[in-house]
Amino acid sequence: MPPVSPELISPRSARVSAARRLAKRNFRGKDRLFLAEGPQAVREAAGHRVDGTPTLVELFATVEAAERYADIVEAARSAGARVHLAAEDVIADISTTVTPQGLVGVCRFLDTSFEDILAARPKLVAVLAHVRDPGNAGTVLRCADAAGAEAVVLTDASVDLYNPKAVRASVGSHFHLPVAVGVPVERAVQGLKDAGVRILAADGAGDRDLDEELDKGSMGGPTAWVFGNEAWGLPEETRALADAVVRVPIHGKAESLNLATAAAVCLYASARAQRASGGCRSVTES
């Protein structure tokens, strides 16, 4: 067989330009499309649908990546995505990473309405309030997914969920659980409270200790954790909305934990309590 040649060889082609502009937030919002890079994210996107509509719209792949990840390319085609074999410099032009992995997908937005999240009666939710770093936002989304949370809510003061750094940091978790974006923090908290969910604000200066809360057995019910800005935490007005402000205890000499690490500790603490004997299984159970 003759060697396969890429069909897209110019970074200035219309298809490449349309994909490349999705690195910018205003174009993502206008087109309601975002980029997913690398085999894991593209594999998840290829298998994902929203109300029957495939999430993956288009796939750009180098010849080498298309051969190495033939199953992903076939899944993309089966999902109805347009697949383009592209030169390496074309992929590099679309990609936002220093060392592209040869696969870049164009995906439809995934966000869910906050009302739909409440209607599902979630028992574990992560609320990102004033989170500005996209890497941290994506990592918290990944932690929430791993801990078994049913939803993530990003407030209107937080970073764009579809920032390429956030998508990379989530390592495919964007496609695993519902996420509501642009929700005012007051509305997020009140809506969850009305749905029977206890609101815990995670803050290093909290007056409640996470270990003590676990020992008291108070962590087994439906819970939403509110996480704040990486640098200055949660503002007082946001802490005041919570049912309790909880700190992760520092047993060693570290000054503090970063946002994603603290989120993982808090979410797993709730997940363990809810899965323990007598813990929460549904907000409708007594």
Tally of DSSP helical segments? 13
N-C termini distance: 66 Å
Write down the overall mean pLDDT: 91
Order of helices and strands: HHEHEEEHHEHEHEHEHEHEEHEHEH
β-strand number? 13
- Which shape, going by the Cα principal axes? elongated
Strand line-up of the largest beta sheet: 9-8-7-12-10-13-11
Key traits:
four-stranded mixed β-sheet, seven-stranded parallel β-sheet, 286 residues, alpha/beta, 20% strand
Protein model, in words:
This protein has 286 residues and is of the alpha/beta class. The chain has 13 helices and 13 strands. The strands form three sheets. A seven-stranded parallel β-sheet has the order 9-8-7-12-10-13-11. Strand 2 and strand 3 (53-54) form a beta hairpin. The termini are far apart.
List the helices and strands and how they pair.
Elements: H1 14-20, H2 25-31, E1 33-37, H3 39-46, E2 49-50, E3 53-54, E4 56-61, H4 63-68, H5 70-78, E5 82-85, H6 88-94, E6 103-108, H7 114-119, E7 124-128, H8 134-147, E8 151-155, H9 164-170, E9 179-183, H10 185-194, E10 198-202, E11 208-209, H11 210-216, E12 223-227, H12 236-239, E13 244-247, H13 259-275
Parallel strand pairs: 4-5, 7-8, 7-12, 8-9, 10-12, 10-13, 11-13
Antiparallel strand pairs: 1-6, 2-3, 4-6
Helix pairs in contact: 3-5, 8-9, 8-13
